[in-house]
Amino acid sequence: MGKKSDTIRLVLLFWILFALIPDTAVATQAHGDPEGLFVHQLAHGFFAVSLAIFIYWLRFRNLTEEIGWRYIQYAAIFLILWNVDAVIAHVLDEQNKIIEVEQIGQWYLKLTSSDNTVFTIVLYYLVKLDHLLCVPALVFLSAGLKQFLKDPAPPASVPASRGKPSS
After folding, report:
1. Residue 73: which residues within 8 A CB-CB, separation 6 or more?
2. What is the pLDDT confidence band of residue 102, given thresholds at 50, 70 and 90?
3. What percent of the chain clears pLDDT 70, i.e. is strictly above it?
């Protein structure tokens, strides 16, 4: 037990050090050119489509009638929106170099767009607020899982006309 607790203490110490002494803090992470970004963008798309199929499956089987599954459905909706947001941020910031970010002070950034429009800069600023989509997703996911712990009843039954394979 001593070895395990030492490992946990070491991991916590490193985590605290890295959390308290950040070099830079950016909401959307940059990726290696160009392959890393393309694969990453495809992964966002795959994740969003997978979540959409998951929502369809939940609704098809009438599982969203239960509160736990309904919360998980809401989490999936927010995660789809987060993926779309992240794709837009990557396109603006890295893929097409539409936005140029220049640090002009410790607390100040200068944003300039290649098309010189305020709309593009405002859009970039808004998509960088991706935590406004990700945090509610995780809250709904947590609430759904907590609901399953409270009520471990089996999921809603699938109607006979749906979900059963034909022979």
Report:
1. 55, 58, 59, 64
2. confident
3. 74
